[in-house]
Amino acid sequence: MTPVHRPLIIGHRGASAIAPENTMAAFKAAIDAGADGVEFDVRLSGDHVPFVIHDETLRRTGGLQSRVCDVSAADLDRTDVGSWFGSGRQFAGECVPRLLYLFELFTLTSAVLYLEMKCGSAQRTQLAEVCCQLLDEYSMKDRVVVECFDLVAIDLVKKIDPAIRTAALFEPSLATPPFVAAQRIVDAAKAVNADEVALHHKLANQRVVQKAKEAGFKVVVWTVDDPRWLSKAESMELHALITNDPVRMLAKYAD
Asked: Do 245 and 14 touch, CB atoms closer than 8 A?
């Protein structure tokens, strides 16, 4: 019998179904769940320190109107982004973590880390340089994949350090008909020397996945919370699935 190809199960912003996204609690929950790794977002503070947070502002998770890029590192260290989650106060006091805290947490694990750079053109170079520097300082280059929708940023990371693995991110677009999406994705990823392509699940059909794999790319799909998707992932031999709920997804593979 042919063995089943199990994709890596990567926790989206940690185990964000059971803990507030992009917090140390969510990353620890992903470790406890047995996830193969985590995905997370990185932005620069107003004084150019890399922090792990998805949104451009603190409104949704921190209850503040401020933009992350306008807030000092010291203030982000004190910003509660846990109280919004759930009905109780279990995660009150979870603050925006610095990128270096996440690296320190995962130093003693073998987890794969998908670092998504969140940047506009104004911060692109500085964020890429800071992330590459920390990857080198913490000896994490063999375990981290840097990804971004801004493919210019991906190209920049490769120019700073060709040894760093990168993934080109793609989401559905009304301007790209399905029958041309596969070739456009492959061409765009090749143009920036990416190592992987990370596809929104609506893009992950057999044609696109096969085309990418034939071009030498590992294929990652996001964000999938339905365990029924695992059979599809196995049949297409996807490298990884990114999910909010690694506990639920890994249950299929439990003994």
From this structure: no
Tokens for 254, please give them: 């439990």
In the chain, the amino acid numbered 21 is E
Whole-number Å distance between alpha carbons of 21 and 99: 14
Q: Tell me the Cα Rg of the chain.
A: 18
- Is the Cβ–Cβ distance between 72 and 46 less than 8 Å? yes
Q: What is the pLDDT of residues 154-171, one digit of tens each?
A: 999 999 999 999 999 999
Alpha-carbon span 231 to 107, nearest angstrom = 32
Residues 184-228 pLDDT 10s: 999 999 999 999 999 999 999 999 999 999 999 999 999 999 999
Instruction: Give the domain extent around 208.
Output: 8-253
Q: Would 162 be classed as within a structural domain? A: yes
CATH number of residue 100's parent domain: 3.20.20.190
Amino acid in position 248: R
Cβ-contact 200, 220 below 8 angstroms: no
Contact partners, residue 75, CB within 8 Å, separation at least 6: none
Closest CA to 26 of 244, 239, 250: 244
Q: Tokens for 215? A: 């071009």
For residue 161, is it within any domain? yes
**116-143: burial string, b at 16+ Cβ within 10 Å, e else:** bbbbeeebbeebbebbbebbeebebeeb
